[in-house]
Amino acid sequence: MPPRDAGTLEGMTSTMTPPSLVLVRHGETTWNHDHLVQGHCDDAQLTERGVAQAHEAALTLRAYGIDVVVSSDLRRAQHTATIIANGRGLEVVTTPTLRERAYGVYEGGLFADLPVSVAGFDGEVVVDADARPPGGESLNDLYLRAARWLAQLRLDFAGARVLAVTHGGTLRAIRAACAATPIATTSWYPVDNASVWTTDLNGDPLG
Predict the structure, then answer these.
(1) What b/e sequence results for 39-76 when a residue is b if at least 16 CB atoms lie within 10 Å of its CB, and e otherwise?
(2) pLDDT tens digit sequence for 2-21
(3) Which of 28, 40, 79, 100 is catalytic?
(4) Catalytic annotation on 48?
(5) DSSP string, the chain
(6) What's the rounded Cα separation, in Å, for the pair 133 and 103?
(7) Which fold has domain 4-199?
(8) Annotated domain spans of the chain
(9) 8 Å CB contact between 170 and 38
(10) Residues 6 or more apart from 34 whose CB is under 8 A from it?
């Protein structure tokens, strides 16, 4: 099914039980292959390998009993989400809130040329959660965006098992927010393309 746009997640509220949440990073893209900074730029497309990874994730997720598929509105995530939802009778709901961190003027450049002073992380260590690329977001900005999305998720998809197809940085931020752990103390661990993660919605980072 083609995605439909949803700037906010609406409908489907039935109980006050927090939903289960499964997270998937999009499949490999042309820009991943070339080691370019993607951010909000929507030029990258899934590679053949990325499409195959999305199909593998779809097979893995058959055992999860997904009720709702929500995706970043960037096409690399939408394509991955559509592959996963295909044949399951599920509609893909898209939202810009699940986009990757915005890297501003660095988008489209080599990731190796992104300074630590701007990225805010060095390898797997967060060194400055307030570092912000010109025209982009800091890690704390990303964390607050993830936390607000989770708060809306709890209201709009209560009682549902939700799959969110998103991006590496956003996935880390969502998992940190779920645990109410500040992004400054979170490991910037590797997140492979099309990898599947589960998390609990116990913490309240806004609260």
Answers:
(1) bbeeebebbeebbebbbebbeebeeeebebbbbbbbbb
(2) 444 444 333 333 344 455 89
(3) 100
(4) no
(5) ---EE-SS--S----SSPPEEEEEEPPPBHHHHTTB--TT-----B-HHHHHHHHHHHHHHGGG---EEEEESSHHHHHHHHHHHTTTT-PEEEEGGGPPPP-GGGTTSBGGGS-HHHHSEETTEE--TT---TTS--HHHHHHHHHHHHHHHHHHSTT-EEEEEE-HHHHHHHHHHHTT--GGGS------TT-EEEE-----TT-
(6) 6
(7) Rossmann fold (3.40.50)
(8) 4-199
(9) no
(10) none
Residue 117 C-alpha from the chain's centroid? 23
Q: Which residue has the tokens 């990258």?
A: 44
Condensed to tens digits (0 to 9), the pLDDT of residues 128-150 reads 999 999 999 999 999 999 999 99
Residue whose pair of structure tokens reads 């993830």 in the numeric block: 146
What's the CA gap between 165 and 79, in Å, rounded? 10
Which residues are registered as beta bridge partners of 199?
Answer: 21
Catalytic residue check, 40? no
Q: Tell me the sheet residues that pair with 160.
A: none
Angle at which helices 168-178 and 139-156 pack, to 10 degrees?
60
**Options 26, 40, 79, 167, the catalytic residue:** 26
Pairing of strands 161-166, 125-126: unpaired
Residues 6+ apart with CB under 8 A from 28: 46, 47, 49, 50, 53, 193, 194
pLDDT digits (tens, 9 = 90+) for 93-140: 999 999 999 999 999 999 999 999 999 999 999 999 999 999 999 999
Nearest-5° Cα angle at 130, 113 to 187:
75
